[in-house]
Write a structure and sequence with these properties.
Layout (H helix, E strand, L loop, with lengths): L1 E2 L9 E4 L3 E4 L4 E4 L5 H8 L2 H11 L15 H15 L6 H12 L4 H5 L4 H33 L1
Antiparallel strand pairs: 1-2, 2-3, 3-4
Helix pairs in contact: 3-6
Amino acid sequence: MTRLHCNQLNNHIIIIGDTFAHCSLCCSDFGVSHGGKHDVYVHVNGKHHKEAASAASSTCSVTSFFKPQHISRVTEAEARWALFNAKHNLSFLTSDHATKLFKTMFPDSEIAKAFACGHTKTAAIIKEALSPHFQKKTVTTRWYATEQNCLF
């Protein structure tokens, strides 16, 4: 298969052998054995192709409907708080009080104002995000240590 390079075609036409071409824009196959490049130009100037091109130009990408996957500073603070809770074996109920305490202690902080990590959210972060991460890390570390021991 050869892709026909032409600025006018936007690389939508793929030549299949010597006799056929495929247009990925309008999902159609057409013959090029008789007129060659002229058959391609006839297809591009046809009604079906122009309608498909018009529809494609007005269509939004799927990615435009999703928010970017960046971690906000508030999310990072909540994850650090959950990790602190787990590391020091604190009760999840301390999270309910800590949220209020942080807002009182740091009234000028935008992060403290938006921080909302009660016992339910802290437990969810530990169980659903931190635990799988550290379990994977532990398995990898143990596997690597076992492989090193086998080598010596």
